[in-house]
Design brief:
The chain has 700 residues and is mainly β. It has three domains: 230 residues, Beta Barrel (Porin); 132 residues, GMP Synthetase, Chain A, domain 3 (2-Layer Sandwich), CATH 3.30.300; 257 residues. Helices cover 12% and strands 45% of the residues. The chain has twelve helices and 32 strands. The chain has a 13-stranded antiparallel beta sheet with strand order 20-21-22-23-24-25-26-27-28-29-30-31-32. It has a twelve-stranded antiparallel β-barrel with strand order 1-2-3-4-5-6-7-9-10-11-12-13. Strand 20 and strand 21 form a beta hairpin. Helix 5 packs across helix 6. The chain is globular, with a radius of gyration of 29 Å.
Length: 700
């Protein structure tokens, strides 16, 4: 039968259904064969704990699936999947397919109602796994959960009842990667359902009636669909790790391994850093009348003795003194944070030291953090409040603090610390470079040694260099052909830089403060592994504002493939105007509009969720005036990015982070210059809003 009705009405009706029953938490870290919350391969209305990040790998017959799933909000989850099917295509031994899923919890479970979710599966790919669903899940007691749902597309392909909702658009876009709106919740539909029963703390038994007929796989003779019944047994190895054995459609036996973590839960709760110095209370006025009167000013003169003692104590805490001013009642300390990922922790450690370094008449402490010698943000703390609130909740001290731009302060003349500049930072460490999604080899690796050096010549002026020595690897052997590209090869030629020793960058950088709330950067030299030139940037950002504006202009010349210091004959002027906004809940949005490396014009939208311990998980997408057919496979540039702070694993303070970008494909459209030192993330991390979000570390 044909139902000429928009299925979104069903979702709206479910969302409007109101019950006075108390809501329940229907959550699980267990994943199905698709790598998301579900039964065996069908979805459920279950959700993972907020912020949960999970990775799974399943294998059955000639099919494998690797899935990364993130619980973006308590109701919204997203998945990125990389599937391989052997003997599916004559062009490849294994056909590899990328897909994205989204699922949204419309309503929580109540005493008498189920939880209800709506989802999109493979909603912007080539359509191999495309499908949509509405699903309900209800718990019965502590051990049993029952699920029933309605699926379309792939999830409506096994439909004995034979009913549909309108006509489904089955047109195929050869380049893939586009939103297939015309398919969503349209065409043949089918019911599915199942249950899970927790046998004990370790094992869960699962069974389902699947609405996936594996039509395309059956046509290519890589799978046999004998039955809609799937069964599985899940065994929990740890809190977030499990192995699952399953039997699908009467044809295939398989295994899945899944693991996960939650950025909210560090490996070492609270950290294992050394204890800070205690606050030193000031003596009474009668005990130190000279110190309280301010007569000591004449004795200390230029305060060089105080500066030296302060610098030594700060160095022991991983902080570097750059400049200091001192009067009878006020002091300002400009410092560089070399240890603490939580800037509030650096402030707390420094404030404790200052109570021990300055005479009792000094009541106002101004702590100014710098970036490459340039003052970025000032925190003003009353000394009396530090003494009063040392053993109180951190919130009390936050209420007493004032955040401001250093340029807004009418302070006394600062005296530079003699040992602050020049300053040299260097490191030598192993590296691994990863290239993914080559259709002939899904993962390629290079590994070797990377050396880096940063020479801070003077406040605001630095020299940076980085080079790699490749020991071995196969990234340069990628077989994807880009010779038929209709736009300049600004990124797809990256494999041509097959030098054993590669100069990644060699730049001179100038950071400045042109005006209050305004920051500047100028970078000249070999900007990255593929381009040299000039990059200029300006950023407007108030200390406690969620909004910021920026602009960047670059002149880039493509570097020679083999000659370390040579250039090719391709040059381009690129640039973007950027808007940034910090939303509630730790979400950060960015919009870049401008010209890209291939000369194309367009915009990039980025959204990241940042946790208050430095973790970041986000995604971006770029659309330009390059037609999809010229861009090639994927249609437009997009990807997932993850930042992992090293302190989360180590438990000890460090500013080091590990950045990972999962890019759908490396193509030429929408490509940006990779310049180190861009201002927004560096500046905002030192400012009031970010400091406040991690203020709990102030007394640590």
């Amino acid at each position: 039968m044909k139902l000429k009705k928009n299925v979104f009405g069903l979702g709206f009706a479910a969302m409007c259904f109101v019950s006075t029953s108390s809501a329940q938490d229907l959550s699980t870290t267990r994943l199905n064969v698709m790598g998301r919350q579900g039964i065996v391969e069908m979805p459920t209305a279950e959700v993972a704990p907020d912020g949960q990040l999970a990775l799974s790998y399943s294998k059955f017959g000639k099919i494998s699936r690797t899935t990364l799933t993130f619980q973006i909000t308590p109701r919204l989850s997203g998945s990125f999947r990389y599937s391989g099917i052997e003997d599916y295509s004559e062009s490849f031994d294994t056909y590899w397919d990328r897909s994205f899923d989204l699922s949204y919890l419309l309503m929580n479970e109540g005493a008498y109602r189920p939880a209800v979710s709506v989802g999109l599966q493979d909603f912007m790919g080539t359509g191999l796994l495309s499908g949509e669903y509405v699903v309900a899940t209800k718990s019965i007691g502590d051990k049993l959960r029952v699920t029933g749902g309605l699926g379309w597309g792939r999830l409506g392909s096994y439909s004995p009842l034979g009913f549909s909702f309108g006509e489904r658009d089955t047109s195929f876009i050869e380049t893939g990667g586009t939103l297939n709106f015309g398919q969503w919740f349209q065409g043949e539909a089918a019911v599915f359902g199942g249950l899970s029963y927790q046998l004990n703390e370790k094992m869960t038994l699962l069974a389902e009636y699947s609405s996936d007929a594996y039509t395309k796989e059956v046509e290519q003779d890589v799978f046999t669909h004998k039955s809609p019944i799937n069964v599985a047994l899940d065994y929990k190895l740890g809190q977030n790790t499990s192995v699952t054995a399953f039997f699908l459609h009467g044809d295939a036996v398989g295994l899945q391994f899944s693991t996960g973590l939650n950025p909210k839960n560090p490996k070492v709760a609270g950290g294992i850093e050394t204890a800070p110095l205690p606050i030193r209370p000031r003596p009474s006025r009668s005990a130190d009348p000279i110190g309280w009167s301010g007569e000591w000013v004449a004795e200390v003169g230029d305060a060089s003795g105080i500066r030296s003692a302060l610098a030594k104590a700060m160095a022991d805490e991983g902080l570097a003194l750059e400049a200091m001013s001192l009067t009878t009642t006020r002091t300002e300390v400009q410092f560089r944070n070399e240890r603490y990922g939580a800037h509030s922790q650096a402030l707390g450690r420094l404030a404790r030291i200052m109570t021990r370094a300055f005479p009792p008449s000094v009541e106002t402490f101004v702590l100014t953090e710098t970036l490459d010698g340039v003052p970025i943000h000032s925190t003003v703390l009353p000394r009396s409040k530090l003494e009063a609130y040392e053993f109180s909740p951190a919130r009390s001290m936050l209420d007493a603090a004032t955040f401001t731009d250093p340029l807004s302060l009418q302070g006394d003349n600062l005296v530079a610390h003699e040992g602050a500049f020049p300053n040299t930072l260097w490191s030598v460490a192993p590296y691994v470079a990863v290239s993914v999604f080559d259709p002939h080899s899904p993962i390629r690796l290079d590994y070797g040694v990377r050396g880096q050096i940063n020479y801070e010549m003077a406040p605001g002026l630095t020299l940076d260099a980085a080079a790699t020595l490749r020991v071995s690897g196969d990234i340069s052997e990628e077989e994807d052909d880009y010779d038929d590209s209709n736009i300049p090869h600004v990124r797809t030629s990256s494999r041509e830089y097959d030098n054993r020793v590669q100069l990644e960058k060699l730049t001179a950088n100038w950071y400045s403060r042109p005006a209050q709330n305004v920051f500047g950067r100028l970078t000249v030299g070999y900007l990255e592994s593929m381009y040299g030139g000039v990059s200029a940037e300006v950023l407007w950002k108030k200390p406690s504002s969620p909004f910021a504006l920026g602009a960047e202009l670059n002149y880039a010349v493509q570097r020679d493939f083999e000659e370390t210091f040579g250039f090719r004959d391709y040059d381009i002027v690129t640039g973007h105007v950027s808007a940034y906004y910090a939303f509630e809940g730790g979400f950060h949005g960015q919009l870049d509009v401008g010209r890209y490396l291939a000369g194309d014009w367009g915009a990039t939208v980025s959204v990241d969720r940042e946790f208050n311990n430095g973790w970041r998980v986000g995604a971006y997408a770029t659309l330009t005036d390059v037609p999809f057919e010229d861009f090639g496979e994927g249609s437009f540039d997009k990807g997932i990015r993850i930042t992992v702070p090293s302190a989360w694993f180590a438990g000890t303070p460090t500013t080091e982070t590990n950045d990972f970008v999962i890019q759908s494909l490396t193509r030429d459209g929408g490509a940006k210059l990779n310049v180190d030192g861009r201002l927004y993330d560096r500046v905002r991390g030192m400012q009031g809003a970010e400091i406040e979000s991690r203020w709990g570390k102030f007394w640590r």
